Amino acid sequence: MIGYRAIVPALAAGGYVVLVRPRLLRWGATDEEAARVYPGDDLVSEATAQSTMAVTLPAPPERVWPWLVQMGHDRAGWYSWDRLDNAGRPSAERIVPGWQDVKVGDRMITMPNGQSWFTVGMLDEPRTLILRADLEIPGGKPFDPRKTYPYAYTEGIWAFHLEPLPEGRTRLVVRTRGRGKPRVLDRVVAVLAGEPAHFIMQLRQFQNLRRRLETDTDPDRRAHLATTSETTD
Fold it and tell me: How many folded domains does the chain comprise?
């Protein structure tokens, strides 16, 4: 006979998968946005996981774009929970001209030691920025997907799609796609840890981007920032 202590966790897990997880995977996105095929989706073929989150921001794509391309641990940070994803270093509160020159193939460092990073996989200013991560398991060492795949790995994209809206606003749609091997282990880790973590961090990034854009409404201040040649935050 199955004991009460076994039933409760099983019910909780079932409730999460059926009721909670679908909402996390498409928070803020419309049915059309969640179903749409975006540029760069094919960078991860045969993906076993996908999420689509979206938010409306109070500025046009041309003003949102500079915040995104300057991301990176050694640059502006990630505008999320800095103690969790930026080694406690505060994310930038301003646009830094020296961090705006980004091209496909560039690295956005994710760790203080510089041994892990996102690679810029696609760039279409100011509409599409796609970052990809290809990591060996265990250890999380980056590998080159153009060469031989390791036995165990995870690969995925973190894609930012900006669409102009009336009244100078932007619809920011963030799409993730991923896969890995061994497949069963990859799916278990993604469902139990990866997807909830992404939801928490992405939601925080949305909130912080909105705050930065809402407070940066002074045209004189924007002009000043555009000509400031800082290279550190």
Answer: 1
* pLDDT (average), residues 84-101: 95
CA distance 216 to 211: 8
Cis amide leading into 126 (omega within 30): yes
CA atoms of 34 and 89, how far apart (whole Å)? 33
């201040």: which residue's tokens? 221
pTM (2 d.p.): 0.85
The residue segments making up the domain with residue 36 are 4-226
Tokens at 67, concatenated: 């915040």
Which of 111, 102, 159 minimizes the C-alpha distance to 131? 159
What span, in angstroms and rounded, lies between the C-alpha atoms of 159 and 68? Answer: 11
In a domain, 171, yes or no: yes
- Mean pLDDT within 167-183: 95
CA dist., res. 172 & res. 28, Å (int): 10
Tell whether 219 is covered by a domain.
Answer: yes
Amino acid type, 12? A
Evaluate whether residue 232 is within a structural domain.
Answer: no
Residue positions counted in the chain: 233
